[in-house]
Specification:
This protein has a single domain, classed as Orthogonal Bundle (434 Repressor (Amino-terminal Domain)), CATH 1.10.260. The chain contains six helices and no strands. It comes from Variovorax boronicumulans. This is XRE family transcriptional regulator.
Length: 91
């Protein structure tokens, strides 16, 4: 699995681990729960909406891209190293 579907699978995993609901996702991207579910399932989410979810999760977009298989920018961490819950505790 590569590209957007893999990226969305990672985001779904992180959202679930952090306890976010479909309603939280819909609110973050400014749409209905039904539409958010369709976008996540079809892998057709726009980059700006993906960015909003990354921000909601307090994750680093470069780390997620690296996990998907895109080249890691120089100086960026190698992988997702902390759980979402620990990121909330840090800041």
């Amino acid at each position: 699995m590569h590209g957007t579907p893999h990226l969305l699978a990672i985001l779904r995993r992180e959202l679930a681990a952090a306890g976010f609901t479909l309603g939280d996702v819909a609110s973050a991207i400014g749409t209905s729960e039904r539409r958010a579910q369709t976008l996540m399932a079809n892998g057709t989410m726009k980059l700006r909406d993906i960015d909003k979810l990354v921000e909601l999760l307090h994750l680093d977009f470069d780390e997620i891209l690296s996990e998907v298989g895109y080249p890691r920018p120089f100086g960026a961490p190698l992988a997702l190293s902390a759980s979402v819950s620990s990121r909330f505790e840090e800041g």
